[in-house]
Amino acid sequence: MKLKEINTLVDAGEVNLNRYTFVSEELNKEENTQLMADEPTGDKEEKVYFRLNQTGNIFYAMTANVDGINDRTKKLFESVTVLFAAMTAALGAAEKTLFDYEAWTALIRKSGFFVEVQKSYHTLHIKEKSVTIDTQIIQQLLPGVATGNALLIAKSVLSALNGEFSSRTEDDKTKIAHLLFFCEELFGAPSVTVRVFYASKNTHHELVKTSCATVSNTSIDLTQEANTFMFVSPDSIAEFAQKFKDVPEAYLELIEKFKKDISS
User: Fold this and answer.
1) How many CB atoms lie within 10 A of CB 163?
2) Which of 109, 165, 166, 255 sits a CA distance of 20 to 30 A from 208?
């Protein structure tokens, strides 16, 4: 995976702020709700602007546009790209794929950068003879991603997952995964949450037997599960990003550490 793909963002749409539910528990706390209520808006409806990186692994939801985010937010979000690049390099060095659920969870839980907060369960409702299955899934998991390049990126991720299911011969309970960083910002307050979405042939058999790029002939309800993690001491982690830029050896050491986390 190329660093340029990780760093390149595409527009993923926008919604009114009152229609978006932050993934971050912190940004959904009462004090942030009060902050939102106190923010002067005049006649203008506040918006949340979405971006998605080219690999489909980092999703941004911000009340400020990319050029308008403050230094604190910028540093934190930059650290995400550094960590994700190191993680993918470590997976490759350990001869693991980006779909390896066990490798991802071991890496995240042992890294010291994250703490698990909850499992999330999202019931997906796939309507018959509606838009394609992949479009319905994306619109339910990533609100706002409805058209354009962001939708194409998200569809390519689902296509890759579907192909991974089809090519595997292991036990039907074997899980495959997709990691997604949610980088969120609310009026200058940033937060980063990580979700490892996972599925198996056993839990998603209705989707495995067909192509996600097609229209469903029947209505399908299924539960999409994910492990949810939050950054530990995000302000400290944000400082690491610059350190890795200035001292490449430190970045290589981080990759080696992640590799050991996966293997141990």
Assistant:
1) 13
2) 109
State the pLDDT at residue 236: 61
Q: What is the pTM of this model?
A: 0.86
Q: In the chain, what is the greatest distance between 2 CA atoms, to the nearest angstrom?
A: 58
| Helix axes of 133-141 and 148-167: crossing angle, nearest 10 degrees | 110
What is the 8-class DSSP label of residue 46? P
Chain segment 133-177, per-residue pLDDT in tens: 888 888 888 877 777 888 888 888 888 887 777 776 666 778 889
Residue whose structure tokens are 């995976």: 1
For 125, residues 6+ apart whose C-beta sits below 8 A from its C-beta are 136, 140, 219, 220, 221
Torsion of CA 106, 109, 113, 115, to 10 degrees: 150
Between CA 150 and CA 155, with CA 213 as vertex, the angle to 5 degrees is 20
The H-or-E segment that residue 72 falls in is helix 71-93
